[in-house]
Write a structure and sequence with these properties.
This protein has seven helices and five strands; from the N terminus they run H-E-H-E-H-E-H-H-H-H-E-E. It is of the alpha/beta class. The protein has a single domain, classed as Beta-carbonic Anhydrase, Chain A, CATH 3.40.1050.10. The chain has a five-stranded mixed β-sheet with strand order 2-1-3-4-5, sandwiched between helices. The longest helix has 19 residues. The chain is globular. The relative contact order is 0.17. GO terms for molecular function: carbonate dehydratase activity; zinc ion binding. Its cofactor is Zn(2+). Pfam families: Pro_CA.
């Protein structure tokens, strides 16, 4: 099993197109990626990884519900992945709906409302601006990472003992941007303060 930093270096290199991993001896996933359900590309494609090398979790608007938490717990307890990546994207329908709700006080009905409310709470929690969808997506990715850390005792334990880390990032179809890291993982391009 790799450590969080080695795993992030591998995923980052794959996202940058620097190498194709050799996984002929891979017997378990190397990381877990929580991505938005309406993202155009799965985590393996973003990070240049072979099929089956990632625990691929998705929910609309990065909503952290029981299913997502169960997937995270599986990833850290059973698959023993050393890294969780929260991957938002700039062209997100939930982000657009949240910006519309913020600007015009128009919330969608049904289950989508809870996801949009989650994005709005991320805006408040981060003190983020709604000047661009990219800013909102970044704030929501960071708040989602913090939410996973607060709501999954298994993840919290592994981050505390240094065996797992969290990277909060966004992807616009061409560029991967890291907004925060938690635990024993760093990224040279991290724009926001690292959370430990």
């Amino acid at each position: 099993m790799s450590n969080p930093q080695e795993t992030w270096n591998r995923l980052r290199a794959g996202a940058d197109g620097l190498h194709a991993p050799n996984d002929t001896d891979m017997d378990r996933p190397v990381a877990a990626v929580l991505r938005c359900a309406d993202a155009k590309m799965a985590g393996a494609g973003v990070f240049g990884q072979p099929a089956g090398s990632l625990v691929d979790l998705s929910s609309w608007g990065l909503t952290v519900d029981t299913s997502v938490l169960a997937g995270v717990d599986f990833a850290v307890e059973t698959a023993e992945v050393p890294l969780i990546v929260v991957l938002g994207h700039d062209d997100c329908a939930a982000i657009r709906a949240a910006v519309k709700a913020w600007n015009h006080a128009e919330l969608p009905d049904g289950a989508m409302r809870a996801a949009v409310e989650g994005v709005l709470m991320s805006l408040v929690g981060r003190g983020a601006s709604v000047e661009s969808h990219a800013h909102v997506a970044a704030a929501h990715a960071v708040e989602t990472g913090l939410s996973l850390l607060k709501r999954s005792p298994a993840l919290t334990h592994r981050v505390d003992n240094g065996t797992c880390g969290i990277v909060c990032a966004t992807y616009d179809g061409a560029v991967l941007r890291v907004h925060a890291t938690m635990g024993d993982v760093r990224d040279a391009s991290t724009a926001l303060v690292e959370c430990v």
